[in-house]
Amino acid sequence: MPELPEVETVKSGLEAAILGRRLTDVDLQRPDLRWPIPPDLPDRARGTKVVQVRRRSKYLIINLEPVESLILHLGMSGRIRIDKIDISGAVLPASQSEKHDHVVFKFSGGVEVRFNDARRFGMLDIAKTVDVDDHPLLRHIGPEPLGNSFNATYLGDRLESSRTPIKAALLDQRIVAGLGNIYVNEALWRAGISPTRKAGRISSRRLDQLIPHIRDVLREAIQAGGSSLRDHRQTSGELGYFQHTFRVYDREGSPCRTEGCDGVIRRIVQSGRSTFYCAKCQR
DNA sequence: CTTCAGACCTGGTGGC
DNA sequence: TGCCACCAGGTCTGAA
Questions:
Q1: How many structural domains comprise chain A?
Q2: pLDDT digit string, tens, across residues A223-271
Q3: Which of A139, A165, A173, A229 lies 20 to 30 angstroms, CA to CA, from A182?
Q4: Last residue of a domain, which of A84, A108, A134?
Q5: Distance, angstroms, CA A277 to C1' B8?
Q6: Gap between the Cα atoms of A123 and A71, Å rounded
Q7: Measured between alpha carbons, how far is A189 from A178 in angstroms, rounded to an integer?
Q8: What contacts A165, CB < 8 A, 6 or more positions away?
Q9: Segment A51-55 mean pLDDT
Q10: pTM listed for this prediction
Q11: Among all residues of A, which ones are annotated catalytic?
Q12: Residues A82 and A31 occupy one common structural domain
């Protein structure tokens, strides 16, 4: 489900609901998601206070004082659901349990946060806050695409000797963090770059142009609350609506939307995943 | 080292 | 309606 914009959307909802609150309990409805959840996680988390909610790549990190942090990944189908809170801070409806609610976090003020994940490709871990960026799953992740260190010089250096298709390179989280199948397809279409082109065979001028297209599509998607295809929901339960803005993703057989292009969007499979592009205007 | 198929898991869709 | 094949916002693992 979630790429950077979806996770960022969830992050914002979570932050608004739990920042500054005390975590009073964690209910594990099952012992594992993709991997076992540390059985001592509830004991380590209980009684702490949320001092920061952040996103790193597609991971959510909840910094709990005094020393621990929760690390969550939503996998393909993960959702975070939060009770609605009215303007006076009161919790509106009593929260209903749903199928695949695997973890329930309870906070002061009666706020409940549910981690629902049908496919269970998600993960939940706890680590000392000082060790979070060294966590085995986070250690090798590349720069944030919306940050300054993701620039043409960096990307050029990183792709210079790569013979892999640019589509696969951009999905590699060690090269750039947070991109997934939708936004890579969309960014390459905007940049007019063929997804099959070898990453090392793209001129620095074109890489230079690709970067703002990646940033733009991500920012626009965040603005729209992400893309809701099957599973993604904002924490309030509302849908994201960036899917209405797709130019290539899931548009096989439809006309290319490039000004003056009469091409048709094609679907191919690259390293086991669907790629959508226009062979006419993406070179 | 790089690259890629396979694995993990559930649910929705479309064809017959 | 039922059954089945195929598809899905991810990413780790192991093999070549």
A1: 2
A2: 999 999 988 899 989 999 999 999 999 999 999 999 999 999 999 999 8
A3: A139
A4: A134
A5: 29
A6: 8
A7: 18
A8: A195, A196, A197, A198, A199, A270
A9: 98
A10: 0.96
A11: 2-3, 58, 273
A12: yes
Q: Which residues touch strand B (CB under 7 A)?
A: A 34, 77, 99-100, 118-121, 162-165, 168, 230, 271-272
Structure tokens at A148: 């300054």
> How do beta strands A23-28 and A49-56 pair?
unpaired
Q: Is the pLDDT of residue A90 over 70?
A: no
Q: Which residue has the tokens 């924490």?
A: A235
CATH code of A120's domain:
3.20.190.10
Domain residues for A13? 4-134
Q: Provide the sign of the torsion angle of the four alpha carbons A15, A21, A27, A31, taken in this order.
A: positive
| CATH number of the domain within which A193 lies | 1.10.8.50
Measured CA to C1', the nucleotide nearest A5 is: C9
- Asked if A282 and A197 touch (Cβ cutoff 8 Å), the reply is no
Q: Which nucleotide is nearest to A174 (CA to C1')?
A: C11
- Parallel/antiparallel/unpaired status of strands A112-117 and A101-107: antiparallel
The answer to whether residue A91 scores a pLDDT higher than 80 is no
The last residue of a domain, from among A81, A104, A134: A134
User: Which nucleotide across the nucleic acid strands is nearest to A2, CA versus C1'?
Assistant: C9
Same domain (yes/no): A76, A163: no
Please report whether residue A251 resides in a domain.
no
Give whole-number Cα distances, A129 to A63, A69, A135, A177, in Å.
7, 5, 10, 20
A189 and A85 share one domain: no
Q: Are residues A125 and A14 in the same domain?
A: yes
Whether residue A127 sits in one domain with residue A8: yes
